[in-house]
Amino acid sequence: MIGVGLGCVWFGWASTTFSQPVATGPTTTPTLLDFAPVSYFQDNCARCHGSYGQAYESGMAARYTDQELREKVDTMASGPAQAPLAGAALDAVLEYQKSLNASVPFVHLASVGEGATPTISGEVTPGAKVVVTVGDTRADATVDGHTWKVVWKESVDVKNVRVDVK
Ligand code: HEC
Description:
By secondary structure, this protein is α+β, with helices and mostly antiparallel strands. Helices cover 25% and strands 20% of the residues.
């Protein structure tokens, strides 16, 4: 396993399995947010909780209420991770934690470009499929690791962008 520190042995690594997201995820239209929650997790949390959270016990989040999990993430971010979170960024990392534990894919919309051929992009659980819809037009995004993007063939009004993940 990559990046497992000795300080984290009490998680019970050997018994933990990580299931790739299955193709039954929710339909999600995330709020546009110029913050990268999956990259944040990989940079600040994965050294203790495993790449893409694979070291969490399955069903971990179910033991917490939303508010408790939010406090946990907040405490972890400002404590061991030394990378404090607030507001919408904290919400996004919280949603990512919940998706990990529900084994459903997470999707995030980071940017909608301007001009005649704008790039629409964000982050996603690796291995998931992202479909972008603008008005009546849909297109599969290109997923590379935990990022996705699609280049649109006409200008886009951010209000009309819909993102689905499977
Ligand atoms: C230096 C190692 C370390 C880092 C970095 C770290 N954590 Fe933790 N985390 C722990 C330990 C140890 C526990 C178990 C003890 C506890 O709950 O306080 C834990 C517990 C948790 C739990 C509860 C898990 C459970 O099974 O109940 C969550 C959620 C969590 N961390 C999220 C995060 C997030 C999000 C980050 C990044 C912002 C992060 N952690 C960074 C060590 C770390």
